[in-house]
Amino acid sequence: MLRLRLLVTALIGLAVAVGTLLAGTATASAAAPEPSAGAPTHLAAGTGDGDGELIRVRVRTEDGEDLAGVDVRVEQEGAEIGAGTTDDSGIAEIPVPEAGDYEVFVDEESLATVAEGLAPRQNPIATTVNVGSPRTVAFRVGEGGEATAAAGGDQLQRVAQLTVSGLRFGLIIALAAIGLSLIFGTTGLTNFAHGELVTFGALTAYFFNAVLGIHLIWATVLTVIAAGIFGYLNDRLLWGPLRNRGTGLIAMMIVSIGLAILLRYFFLYLAGGQTKSYTDYRGQAGVAFGPVTLRPIDWISMGIALVVIIAVGVALLRTRLGKATRAVADNPALAASSGIDVDRVIRTVWVGGTALAGLSGVLLGLAQQVSFMMGLQILLLVFAAVVLGGLGTAFGALFGAIIVGVFIEVSTLVIPTELKNVGALAVLILVLLFRPQGILGRAERVG
């Protein structure tokens, strides 16, 4: 029960902090802020010539993929002022003669050529350009946009699309959540560095794929192996010695926070702050199955995640190691007295849990893009999945991840896309308040 209370206290603090961060980020996004001084050259503030103003147009999918080759134009009072085509960063810069009110359009025919089945959520977008300050206009495109609705799509089709997209995202979260749940179940550690294990997987796959030129399939296999080794080193060099010294759970949780910060900025130092994409499977057209349209790689990713999750479940239920893992999670002292090597089981769980997190990072990089912050951005969702399903239970983590993934996607029917993760925050708080043991977890008696 001490473990449960520690986790509840930590997660409530995390939920409040991340919720505040998300709300601030969404507000800043809605206001379309100007790029910071540390942005790349093509995003730097100011036109520099004093002969006019500038509108920067960015086109990207809801999963964060920048779209190149999309034609955009700027109009004022029905007259075309300028036009351009997005570059590899999804950005087109269009000079305008003076400050004032403008409308920015995306050419949907060129968009269909680049990304079939996608449509802008809003087209056109009205904007105001101020003197000496370039304006950035961001178009989000996805399935079931305004153009699709005008072509005959309906609300039920959009619900189906969002549900399947949520299922895909939920399966990706589940891979990370199962590893986190198993580690917590066997050690009692609330590992705030688990998000960085996801980032490790994504960045390692990017290194193998984009830098070394290895096809993404084989890069993924190498990444899972590398992640397993990284998990082994984590436990062998850090967590194992701390356990042997009798370090308390609160102290270990604080160590995990420090490790998360260290790894995050080490990744920033190595990979930089810009988002990246794998070289394979870019720009795939969507494939429709009934009312649902996804890229082939998205369907394949869902299949891979489902097969791996089923394999982990069978291993936990049918193999000797799986039974030993469940015994250690249930009662470490009793497991040790019955002859189970608890340290070996825990180390194996670290290897497997980190490998699952690494695979989750690869699939998340395919669905979105790779960045040094991606693990932190889904950490709250992973915790929400674990808490919702039941602390320390692998099947509970799967169940919770599916609910969280579908919930946050379908919630965009009634709330802005930028705020969709707030739904996971609400779920986390409600579960902690009314059923802290989770849906599949067991209540424990105090005293």
What does the model show?
There is one protein chain. This protein is α+β, with helices and mostly antiparallel strands and 447 residues long. It has 14 helices and ten strands. The chain has helices at 2-30, 108-114, 146-150, 155-187, 194-211, 216-244, 249-271, 296-318, 320-330, 332-337, 342-367, 374-389, 394-410, 422-434; strands at 53-61, 71-76, 79-85, 91-96, 100-106, 119-120, 125-129, 135-142, 287-289, 292-294. The strands form three sheets. It has a four-stranded mixed β-sheet. Strands 3-2-5-7 form a four-stranded antiparallel β-sheet. Strands 9-10 form a two-stranded antiparallel ribbon. β2 (71-76) and β3 form a beta hairpin. The relative contact order is 0.14.
Brief write-up:
The protein has 447 residues and is an alpha+beta fold. It has helices spanning 2-30, 108-114, 146-150, 155-187, 194-211, 216-244, 249-271, 296-318, 320-330, 332-337, 342-367, 374-389, 394-410, 422-434, and strands at 53-61, 71-76, 79-85, 91-96, 100-106, 119-120, 125-129, 135-142, 287-289, 292-294. Helix content is 57%, strand content 13%.
Give me some keywords for this one:
447 residues, alpha+beta, ABC transporter involved in vitamin B12 uptake, BtuC, Immunoglobulin-like, 2 domains, four-stranded mixed beta sheet, four-stranded antiparallel beta sheet, disordered N terminus
Shape: elongated
User: Major sheet: size, sense and barrel closure?
Assistant: 4 strands, mixed
The CATH architecture name of the largest domain reads Orthogonal Bundle
CATH topology of the largest domain: ABC transporter involved in vitamin B12 uptake, BtuC
Q: Bin the strand percentage.
A: 5-15%
What's the total helix number?
A: 14
User: Would you state the CATH class of the largest domain?
Assistant: Mainly Alpha
Provide the domain count. Answer: 2
Number-wise, the strands total 10
Question: Could you tell me the mean pLDDT?
Answer: 79
Low-confidence spans:
1-9, 14-50, 145-153
Distance between the termini: 9 Å
Quaternary state, please?
single chain
What's the SSE pattern? HEEEEEHEEEHHHHHEEHHHHHHH
The helix content, as a percent range, equals: 55-70%
> How big is the Rg?
23 Å
The strand order across the widest sheet is 4-1-8-6
Structural class: alpha+beta
